[in-house]
Design brief:
42 residues, elongated
Length: 42
Amino acid sequence: MNDLPVGLQIIGNYFDEARLLNAAHRFQQVTDWHQQVAPNSV
């Protein structure tokens, strides 16, 4: 992906933090994005 940074934003309804945190947790369980290290951009 051309070594560009990637971002993710999860939004939801008011006072529905539990659902958002659960979605983020599930995403972390099924991917390895949180373990990858960004390449040096010198």
